[in-house]
Structure formats: C-alpha cells, structure tokens
Write a structure and sequence with these properties.
By secondary structure, the protein is of the alpha/beta class. The protein is built from 13 helices and five strands. The protein has a five-stranded parallel β-sheet with strand order 2-3-4-1-5, with helices on both faces. Strand 2, helix 4 (99-110) and strand 3 (119-123) form a beta-alpha-beta unit. The radius of gyration is 22 Å and the shape is globular.
C-alpha cells in the first residue's frame, strides 16, 4: 500500500519519508489515532519500506522512501511471515501484554537481521502493556539494538507510562474522513429506532438488540480475520502440539481483536451523541461528525436538554471504561441503554 493511500496522515508520512531520505530514521515511533486497523496498516507500510528489496535506493541511508509492494520481502511482511518483522499483540482475554511476550520480542530484536535491513518490532495496543512489561521494555527503548526499529501503536496514548512516551517519536495517524458506509449504516439503524421517543420498555430493548447484533457481527469478523492470519491456517500439517498452542493463542487474539472493534463501535455511537449535544446547544457552526444523520440527530435533540445530552455522553464513556473490566457485556449495555435520556 503506497504512502499516498494515507492522505489524512500526510504530515506524519512526510516526516517519515524525509527522515528516511536523510538517513535519520528514529529507533522508536509511537503511532496514535482512533482506528486500530489504520495504525496497523501504516506500521506495515513502514516495515515494508525499510526492508523492501525492489524499491529504488533514493535515500542517503540506502533505504527506499517507498516500498514497491511486490518484492518477496514486501509480500512476506504483508502476510506476516517475514523473519525480521515481529508483531506483538495482547494474547490474554483481558487484553494485557505480558512481560513474557515483551521478553520474547526483545530477544528477537536483539538478533541481527536475517535478511532485511532492520529488525522491526510492532507493539499493537501498546497501552495494554502491564507495568512489569512496560518497565522491561524501557531498557530496550533506552538502548535500542543496532539495525532495529520499534513501532508502538495505540488509540489511548494517555494510558502509556510517561517514561515510554518520552522515548518515542510520536506521530498522529488520523482515521479516514468520516465513517465508512458499513459503520454509518449501523449507527443510522440505531438512530432511526430513536427517531420517535421510546415509550415502552420493549422499545428500549429493540434499540439494545440493534447494538447487540452489531457486536455479534464484529465478533464474527474478528474470528475470521484472526483465523486468516493464524499460522495454523497456513501450516495445517504442523505438529499437533503446536497446532493446539496456535489454537489457544488464536482464541485469546479473537477476544483482544473483538474488544478493540467493540470500543470503536461504541465510539461511533458516542460521535452521534456528541452531535446531539451540539444540536441541543444550537451550535450550527460546528460540523457534525455524522452529517448523513442530521435529521435524526435533530429529532432526538429537540426533546433533550443540553444537560441530558451531556449525561448521555458521560454514560457512554463510563460504559467504555466498565467494559474494560470483567463485567458482563450484555448486562452493562442493557443498564446503559435503560439509563440514557432518549
């Protein structure tokens, strides 16, 4: 995927390509943004760029500023099987990156590149490093091995230790403008159900059903994507013990991936509730996040006070925080939907 496919992040992309061109690429970067998928795609593009075999040597550091995307190295990095590019994701159901995982990554990064220019380590959801893992990782950030590149990805940089933040070059990777069609459609279905005030408990549960069906779709998508990138999918003739280990890792990865997608879905709802709040304040000069739902937004805003609209936003934020604990998902969402001012 060429850098041009990230128009919203061109400032960050320009900084990266200039650094490569001048032979001054940093040893550790923190990519922040609202879309986990987009963060991973940018990290993958950078990993391909620094190890591309087919690109023109345009920079002083003998690294192409753009990956060709077609050479053997680019293809294997895209498929997740390049020996010099390592991805670390939370594996436990609690979405915590454990110290054992960090130690494995550090050990891999400290070895010389097998065939690429740089050893690349990508921490997906770096905010999920537990304190022990973060402290173990600090020494590597302070004294990075030669020929290495560390890329940390997070949608919640405020949850990272200050000592980690201070040792990385931070770049913003905005999401694509607006919501894509699929995300707009499901929020639209949720909003249409609320166009008329829910006058009964049953109508509240119809709204809840829309949300739960959306989450079921996200879980199915997470299962499909994790299965596709699991080694078990590519090496079906592997040893049975190894296959069993991969299966257990995949189960934990599905839960971690689903929680990320659920968080994004609830943020989509929060965006709509933010538009409602702006409408209650008659803030016409502020552009709505979901312009395609303006009539529905106005219909709900017309029957709420600004204080009620703010309360809805706070309840959604509280629910996001609550779902990061071991609370039962369906119960937490049910309580939230029953308490919202609608």
């Amino acid at each position: 995927m060429p850098w041009e496919d990230f128009p919203e992040a061109q400032q960050s992309v320009s900084l990266l390509t200039r650094s490569i061109d001048r032979g001054r690429l940093g040893h550790a970067y923190l990519f922040t943004g609202e879309s986990p998928d987009r963060l991973e795609r940018v990290a993958g593009e950078l990993a391909m760029t620094v190890n591309c075999q087919g690109g023109l040597f345009q920079s002083r550091g003998r690294i192409p500023t753009t990956a060709c995307g077609t050479c053997s190295a680019c293809r294997r990095i895209r498929e997740g099987i390049h020996p010099d590019v390592h991805w670390l994701r939370a594996e436990s159901k609690s979405r915590i990156i454990r110290i054992e995982q960090v130690r494995e990554l550090i050990q891999a990064i400290q070895l010389k590149p097998t065939e690429g220019r740089l050893k690349v380590g990508v921490l997906v959801g770096a905010d999920r490093l537990n304190p022990q893992a973060a402290n173990a990782f600090l020494k590597t950030l302070e004294e990075p091995p030669p020929a290495s590149l560390l890329i940390l990805l997070t949608t919640e940089p405020d949850r990272l230790l200050e000592t980690v933040l201070s040792r990385c070059l931070r770049l913003s990777v905005p999401g694509e403008s607006g919501l894509n069609t699929e995300r707009t459609e499901w929020v639209g279905a949720f909003a249409r159900e609320l166009q008329q005030p829910p006058k009964s408990l049953l109508s509240r549960y119809r709204v809840l059903d829309i949300l739960l069906r959306r989450l079921a779709e996200l879980r199915a998508g997470a299962e499909s994507d994790v299965e596709a990138r699991s080694p078990a999918h590519r090496f079906k003739e592997a040893d049975s013990a190894l296959l069993e280990q991969w299966e257990e890792e995949a189960k934990a990865a599905v839960e971690a991936e689903y929680r990320l997608r659920r968080s994004l879905a609830l943020r989509d709802l929060q965006s709509w509730f933010r538009d409602i709040w702006m409408a209650t304040l008659s803030m016409t000069q502020v552009s709505p996040i979901l312009p395609g739902l303006e009539s529905l937004t106005q219909a709900v805003a017309a029957r709420l006070t600004p204080a009620e609209a703010v309360a809805n936003l706070r309840r959604m934020e509280e629910t996001q925080a609550l779902l990061n604990t071991n609370v039962q998902e369906a119960l937490a969402l049910e309580v939230t939907l029953l308490r919202l001012h609608l």
